[in-house]
UniProtKB/TrEMBL annotation:
It comes from Natronococcus amylolyticus DSM 10524. Transmembrane segments: none annotated. Belongs to the carbohydrate kinase PfkB family. This is PfkB domain protein. Residues 1-295 form the Carbohydrate kinase PfkB domain. InterPro entries: Carb_kinase_PfkB-like, KDG_KDGal_kin_Halo, PfkB_dom, Ribo/fructo_kinase, Ribokinase-like. GO terms for molecular function: kinase activity. Keywords: Kinase, Transferase. The keyword Kinase applies.
Length: 318
């Protein structure tokens, strides 16, 4: 049994080395990349809980590449292997200002878009302490919209705590589409992670982080609401208590996966019995470390995270 189970798509990320342009590069670096698997890896590396990522993949060399890489990071995988559908990929072109970083998705007709609840081992979710997924997953297909809702309901009905990162992606759906879907999922969610900009632009809320958290918790009955604010840090509302955590200074080499690192660290510490204050510290420190590491995965150790926290004690405020 795994204490943490996550569900969603993991793609293969293809990126030119050394900030080269896609149109001229002669080589591409290949890495597994997916929000839910990223969270599972971070949680297992930074806590004692075991983690499983579950999904549907094509029975192909590319699908097997995803699994071998993820299992190499120490998590378990539970896969529905499909003879139909393809392996989703995305291309990432790094660039500084003013060019910026560009992401090109190539994930249409991926095998995961046909994943149905009946195919998956829901017993893993029923027996877990925490089930996690994100707003990326229901955005991928109508089938996944239904499956995501059913898996969250299964977890809630069996006493498994549910956690959800809104994780809005404008390239996948409109704010209106996302809002309609997410509000249907909220009753089955215990812990919500949401960027302040998404609370405003997708859910149509107004105010600063504390006002956003208060409204979300009051309207939807979440046990915990975490509002992230980028360089301004994060705020957590938990059973009426509010804790704020500033961000840690970092040098950004690769920002992709920062939010996943944050969530994985937060859940790892909470599952070990730490309070929200300590969990937020670990989350912020892990996010800062991730930005110094290439790829989507937070390849950090607990000792590294604790060293960052120790350098800036007293950063939490109420």
């Amino acid at each position: 049994m795994s204490e943490i189970v996550t569900f969603g798509e993991t793609m293969l990320r293809l990126s030119p080395p050394d900030q080269r342009r896609l149109e001229e590069t002669a080589e591409l670096e290949v890495r597994a990349a997916g929000a839910e698997s990223n969270v599972a890896i971070a949680a297992q590396r930074l806590g004692s809980a075991s983690a499983t990522w579950t999904s549907k993949l094509p029975d192909s060399p590319l699908g097997r590449r995803v699994v071998s890489e993820l299992e190499g990071y120490g998590i378990d995988t539970d896969i529905v292997w499909s003879e139909e559908g393809r392996q989703g990929t995305y291309y990432l072109e790094h660039g500084g200002k003013p060019r910026g970083t560009n992401v090109i998705y190539d994930r249409s007709d991926a095998a995961v878009t046909t994943a149905e609840t009946a195919e998956l081992d829901t017993g893993l979710i029923e027996d877990a302490d925490l089930f996690f997924t994100t707003g990326i997953t229901p955005a991928l297909s109508e089938t996944l919209r239904e499956t995501t809702a059913e898996l969250l309901e299964t977890a809630a009905e069996n006493g498994t705590k549910t956690a959800f990162d809104l994780n809005y992606r404008a390239k996948l759906w409109s704010p209106e589409e996302a809002d309609d879907c997410l509000r249907e999922l909220f009753p089955s969610i215990d812990v919500l992670v949401v960027a302040a900009r998404d609370a405003r632009n997708v859910l149509g809320l107004e105010g600063e982080a504390r006002e956003l958290a208060d409204e979300l918790a009051g309207t939807f009955g979440f046990e915990t609401v975490i509002v992230t604010r980028g360089a301004e840090g994060a705020l957590a509302w938990n059973d009426g208590e509010v804790v704020e955590q500033p961000s840690y200074e970092t040098e950004t080499l690769d920002p992709i996966g920062t939010g996943d690192a944050f969530s994985g660290a937060f859940f790892a510490r909470r599952l070990e019995g730490n309070g929200v204050e300590t969990a937020l510290e670990y989350a912020a420190a892990t996010a800062a470390l991730k930005r110094t590491i290439p790829g989507d995965v937070a390849l950090v150790t607990r000792e590294e995270v604790e060293a960052v926290v120790a350098e800036d004690e007293g950063g939490i405020s109420r």
